[in-house]
């Protein structure tokens, strides 16, 4: 009787969850962002939330919870009820990198969060000061093996730093890392010729490239970016297999019912495919990149493994 009662309770819970998923959503949805208002992650979240509010018939409210490279917002999401009313727009940091950079993680990105869709790719440009004679990635690799070069970044463990370490690892170079307190100061020093190169965001570097103040050798993503389609990928021009994608995506608490995940995937993917949203992302240096939940889950796992290897090889110590 005890087993039968347990099975009946389980069936009743499953039926209740299914009914709740069918009615979803019936109240406002909180869209968490792990960074301050006005930043590169917050602005797309607010633009997309307006489309989702119209599509879902319930208000989607952006909730900024900055701190620890997105970990605070991710931890809140991991501990939230699995009912679809807490959704997170997260970056690569909290989902795939912080596990290798931090000594203690208050949540497990793989076990405690369920992928909904990849959202956007933030392409980095490999840019050099005009005094650097290299006109291609192959020439830069040859130059780096012949003379000392340095590379600025927004800080230790940031996307630009890790792109450099992956470049060094694959190219067999030893370009010196010079960390700054943000990407802005690094760009300023590159423009001044105080450093040789940077893996910079497209948004921060494209205007300087067009003005001829710095030279772009390639983009870090696997595919060319709509931001500058004439620029080849680094993989195309001298380093096959190279990819350093500063992506973001949508996740929810683990055990969120699959019908709710499917609904969120449908609506987020539709919003990301709208011409005005794609254009807005373009102005932010982003390329829309919606995916299935399964594809995003596989991507998170592959990125986690890749960057763990790079961080270890570079000797970056967890903090």
Strand elements, count: 11
Strand order of the largest sheet: 2-1-3-10-4-11
Task: Indicate the low-confidence ranges by residue numbers.
Answer: 6-17
Give a quick account of the main beta sheet: strands, pairing sense, barrel closure: 6 strands, mixed
Distance between the termini: 53 Å
Mean pLDDT reading: 91
Principal-axes geometry comes out as globular
Q: Level of helix content?
A: 40-55%
Report strand %. 15-25%
Radius of gyration: 21 Å
Determine the number of helices (DSSP H or I, runs of at least 4 residues): 12
Going by helix content, strand content and strand pairing, the class is alpha/beta
- SSE ordering: HEHEHEHHEEHEHEHEHEEHHEH
How does this structure look, described?
The chain is an alpha/beta fold. It has helices at residues 2-23, 42-56, 71-78, 92-101, 109-112, 137-146, 159-171, 183-191, 202-210, 258-272, 275-283, 293-314, and strands spanning 29-33, 60-64, 86-91, 113-122, 124-128, 150-153, 176-179, 197-201, 215-219, 246-253, 286-288. Strands 2-1-3-10-4-11 form a 6-stranded mixed beta sheet, with helices on both faces. A 5-stranded mixed beta sheet has the order 7-6-8-5-9, sandwiched between helices. Strand 6, helix 7 (159-171) and strand 7 (176-179) form a beta-alpha-beta unit. Helix 2 (42-56) crosses helix 10 (258-272), helix 4 runs parallel beside helix 12 (293-314) and helix 7 (159-171) crosses helix 12 (293-314). The longest helix has 22 residues, at 2-23.
């Amino acid at each position: 009787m005890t087993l039968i009662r347990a099975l009946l309770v389980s069936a009743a819970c499953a039926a209740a969850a299914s009914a709740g998923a069918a009615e979803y959503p019936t109240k406002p949805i909180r869209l968490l962002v792990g960074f301050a208002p006005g930043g590169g992650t917050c602005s797309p979240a607010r633009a997309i939330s307006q489309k989702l509010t119209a599509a879902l018939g319930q208000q989607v409210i952006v909730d900024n919870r900055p701190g620890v490279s997105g970990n605070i917002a991710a931890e809140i999401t991991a501990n939230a009820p699995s009912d679809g009313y807490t959704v997170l727009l997260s970056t690569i940091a909290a989902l795939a990198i912080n596990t290798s950079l931090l000594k203690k993680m208050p949540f497990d990105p793989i076990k405690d969060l369920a992928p909904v869709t990849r959202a956007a790719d933030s392409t980095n440009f490999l840019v050099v000061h005009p005094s650097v004679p290299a006109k291609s990635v192959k020439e830069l690799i040859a130059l780096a093996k012949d003379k000392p070069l340095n590379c600025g970044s927004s800080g230790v463990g940031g996307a630009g730093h890790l792109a450099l370490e992956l470049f060094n690892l694959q190219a067999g170079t030893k370009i010196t890392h010079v960390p700054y307190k943000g990407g802005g100061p690094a760009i300023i020093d590159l423009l001044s010729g105080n450093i040789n190169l940077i893996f910079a965001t497209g948004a921060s570097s494209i205007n300087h490239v067009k003005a001829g103040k710095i030279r772009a050798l390639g983009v870090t993503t696997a595919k060319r970016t709509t931001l500058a389609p004439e620029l080849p990928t680094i993989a195309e021009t001298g380093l096959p297999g190279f990819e350093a994608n500063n992506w973001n995506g949508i996740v929810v608490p683990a055990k969120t019912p699959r019908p709710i995940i499917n609904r969120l995937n449908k609506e987020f993917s539709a919003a990301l495919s709208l011409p005005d949203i794609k254009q807005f992302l373009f102005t932010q240096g982003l390329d829309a990149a919606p995916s299935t939940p399964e594809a995003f889950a596989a991507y998170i796992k592959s990125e986690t493994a890749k960057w763990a290897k790079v961080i270890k090889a570079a000797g970056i110590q967890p903090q």
